[in-house]
Structures are given as structure tokens and as C-alpha cells.
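COMPLEX REQUEST
Ligand: zinc ion
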Amino acid sequence: MSASEATLRADIVEIGRRLYARGYVASNDGNISVRLDGARLLMTPAGVSKGFMTPEMMVVTDFEGRVVGGEGGRRPSTEIQMHLAAYRERPDVQAVVHAHPPLATGFAVAGIALDRAMLAEVVTTLGSIPIAEYGTPSTKELPAAVAKFVKAHDGMLLANHGALALGKDLFSAYYKMETIEHAANITLVARLLGREHLLSRDEVRRLQELRGNYGIASPAPICADDVSGSGDTCQVVFAPDSANRLVPVVPGAEDRIQLTYRELTALIEDAVKAITKD
Ligand SMILES: [Zn+2]
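STATUS: Structure written out below.
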């Protein structure tokens, strides 16, 4: 085993310990992975409390999720496909952390995204934190739901499940998980207090421009519209188009009907005629 692999195993153990100590996971919940090289992944094992792992417990898999190494015959986490989806979509991502931190998961259960420009730190590091739609754990549904958002987001809530964070190394992914839970905590307090003063659109732009100074290269869009606090929950997220450019996407837009002024006028005239006929 190389020195760097030994370090990565020790880092996973430490992050598992922190996730458990902070109450971000219960029982055997949660999972952590990191790229070992271009062909292999180091992953937490299934059926183990993340608070009490040892370095030799980790499982080595390929990027199809097949076990290619690891002592003790352990199986990788049942959520490995969700991790693989993240690595497939984001070559820049080196590590993935998944947990069920209670406040962020509460927002995920309530269906409330953390996508309003409330905190400078969050705007700078994560942009908005959307909710990936619900998928049955350990099925293909969850990786598919996550794949929709990972191109543009380093952190997301998973509906009725938990949260996911990506990073350029293990600790950066873990710290993003902390930021997600911290943002959920502060958002909850602000809403309990009954007021949310959002950052202005100009300030959001300034913060996003600062990201390069902090060495943050990954995308982190905040909603493009309505950061002024007019009341509507921001619904604008970004997703890659066919040319891999990030473009705003309005969830549910496919359900909307767009009419020209003339078409709308004709519809109203028809309706009025129908009403006044008898
Ligand atoms: Zn989970």
C-alpha cells in the first residue's frame, strides 16, 4: 500500500468519526469515498458505524463499483452508485461524503431547498443547495436524481433522505457537509424569528467573483433571479445543456404552457363567447 493510500484510509476514518460525533449519521448510515487513481476508488464498507471504522476496513472498487481490493472481504456501501454518478459527471471531484445531518435532512423532508442568498460563506463555497428528487436508496433512481445536479453543485439535499457533498479532497467534501448543515441550522433560526434579509443581487455577484481568490474553481451558481427577497422561493437552478454549458433551468418548466399575446386573446375571446352565448 502506498503512503498516500494509507493517508487516505486514515482521513476516511477521521471523517467518519467526525460525522458520527456531530450526529450527522446514526447507526450504520452515511458513506465516504475518494479516488485512489484513474481506475480505482476507496470506499467505506457497508454495515459499519462510521464512528468506529479502522483503516483496513475500506473497500477498493473500480468505477463500475466492482470490488478489486480490500482486506476482510467487506462489501462497499450500498450507496456506491450515487458516488460513482458524482465521479462520472465531475472529473474534478476527488471525494464524496454522504450523511443524514438532521437539520439539512429536515429541509430535505420538508422539500425546502437552501437556495436563497442568505449567507456569504454559502454563496461563496456552495452557491445554492438544491434538492435532488427522491430515489429509493441503493437503486438506480438515486444516482439518476443526483446526476442532474452534480454538474453545477458541490452540495445538495436528497429528498426524504439526507445530503451529499463533493470536494477536491476528502476534507473539502467533509467541510462542505458541515457548511450545508450549518446553513440549514441558521436558515431555520432566521425563519423561526420570522425575517430573512437576503443578500442583494450585486452582493451575490461580488461574492461569486471572489471565489477564484479562495481557490474555488468548481461551479456554485446561486439562483439567477429573486435574490432580492421578494418572497418567492428561488426556483432557478443551473444544469448543463447539450454543449455542456451551464444554463438556468426552471424545474417543472416542461409542465408550463407558453402562449403568445394573440393566442391568449383568442382563448379569452372564445371563453367569453361561450359564457355569453346562452
Ligand atoms: Zn443515506
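REMARKS: The radius of gyration is 22 Å. The longest strand covers residues 162-167.
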